[in-house]
User: Fold this.
Amino acid sequence: MARTRTLDPVQVLHDAPLAPLTTFRLGGPASRLVVAGCDDDVISVVREADEARVPLLVIGGGSNLVIGDKGFAGTALRIATTGFRLEGTRLDVAAGEVWSDVVARTVEAGLAGIECLAGIPGSAGATPIQNVGAYGQEVSSTIREVVAYDRAERRTVVLTAAECDFSYRHSRFKAHPDRYVVLRVRFELEDAGGLSAPIKYAETARALGVEPGDRVPAATARETVLELRAGKGMVLDAEDHDTWSAGSFFTNPILGEREYRAFLEKAAARLGDDVSPPAWDLGDGLTKTSAAWLIDKAGFTKGYGTGPARISTKHTLALTNRGGATTEDLLALAREVVAGVERAFGVTLVNEPVTVNAEI
Assistant:
């Protein structure tokens, strides 16, 4: 049983279960868990761990995290900071704020720019790390600055959007996972008179009954995205095991010219010449294709699996815990999917969630 000690406002637990802090509900305990409610406490815990050379695991909403069954031998830091300050179109939000609530509040304020990121689980501080995106929007398009603690320089830094090195599901923070701890994120949103940003994603436009590039009321865009996500099991619901996941488990592959040609040849050989795989031209000889399509066409359909870890019944891109799964059950399924897609199409899928003491 976890032992608890409270140092107001920091809560410290030993031999603490981590599974309840993740949306997968998987993973073993941490030697020590600290819950910090303000930036100064976050920095203090990080410095303490670094000075003692104790391994540190930073946890926000736990929606993009796969923790091994043996847990984490070190200090797990749960960031529970709060703060939401809106001045005109500029938003300053604490890393520990619930992201879906942040989106709702900006829409209520009549501002545009992140309304199509509604329903994404996790904390605000995690969004720049992964350059979170969905339904035609990415946080990188609205982030102005990120305030972070730099563990290498032992000081708080403010990084501009350009300095964050954003790319598809990637950033400076993800490239250097042990260097930065995000404290606050600052956004520049748009006042479009209550309207959304131009709708970019074809599926969203169809659901809204508009053309790509059109604007709709921001609240309508948010509600529509929530409905689309819920239909795919991508909105958290404790009663729905399809949401006991990390959302999209794999990123959409980006292929160079030679890789793309080889992929098309394999797709034609497997499915016929009349099949056209999803493709988005990114320029510079790069093409993005759909991980969900690859998984499905490789034979891993919705609901695939017989054990406690299976593919979602609503979306092939989500791996789920049906209750009673272990992390190893999940990893075994992930390895099976990766190997199957590689055999079928010569494309190697890359996992989106961060793994801790776990390997795919």
Observations:
- The first strand starts at residue 3 and ends at 7.
